[in-house]
Specification:
Number of strands: 5
Radius of gyration: 18 Å
Largest sheet: 5 strands, mixed
Number of helices: 4
Distance between the termini: 74 Å
CATH topology: Ribosomal Protein S5, domain 2
CATH class: Alpha Beta
Helix content: 25-40%
Number of domains: 1
C-alpha cells in the first residue's frame, strides 16, 4: 500500500495527513498526538473514525496542522482521517457518512461590522 495524502478543513484550520500501514501511531506536527491534544474529548474524536471501521492499530498517520484553534484542528484532522479511510476501503463510506465524518463543517466566525462592538451586538441605545 502506498502513502495516502489527504486534507481536511474546519473553520480556519487545515490538516494535511499522510496515512500508511503501520501500528497505529499518530504524529501531529512532529509530536505524539497524545501530547499535542491535551483534551480527552479531542483525542476521542480523532480516534472515532478508526473505531467505526475497526482499524485502530492498522495505520500510521503523520499530520501537519496549521491555523485555527485546537478544536478546529481536531475536527479538521478527523475529516482528513475519514476521507483517507474511504480511499482505502470505499465500503466504509456508508458508516462514516452516517456519523457525519465525511461532511465538511463550513461554519466560520462572522466578521465584525463597523459601528458595532461585535458581529451582531449593537451599542446600547440612548433616547436622551
Amino acid at each position: 500500500m502506498d502513502t495516502i495524502n489527504v486534507t481536511g478543513r474546519r473553520k480556519s484550520a487545515i490538516a494535511r495527513i499522510y496515512l500508511k500501514e503501520g501500528k497505529g501511531n499518530i504524529v501531529v506536527n512532529k509530536k505524539n498526538f497524545e501530547d499535542y491534544f491535551t483534551v480527552p474529548e479531542y483525542k476521542y474524536q480523532i480516534k472515532k473514525p478508526f473505531t467505526i471501521v475497526d482499524a485502530e492499530d492498522k495505520y500510521d498517520i503523520t499530520a501537519n496542522l496549521k491555523g485555527g484553534g485546537i478544536k478546529g484542528q481536531a475536527e479538521a484532522l478527523r475529516l482528513a482521517i475519514s476521507k483517507a479511510l474511504v480511499i482505502i476501503n470505499p465500503e466504509d463510506k456508508v458508516a462514516l457518512k452516517k456519523q457525519g465524518f465525511l461532511t465538511r463543517d463550513s461554519r466560520v466566525v462572522e466578521r465584525k461590522k463597523p459601528g458595532q462592538p461585535k458581529a451582531r451586538k449593537k451599542f446600547q441605545f440612548s433616547k436622551r
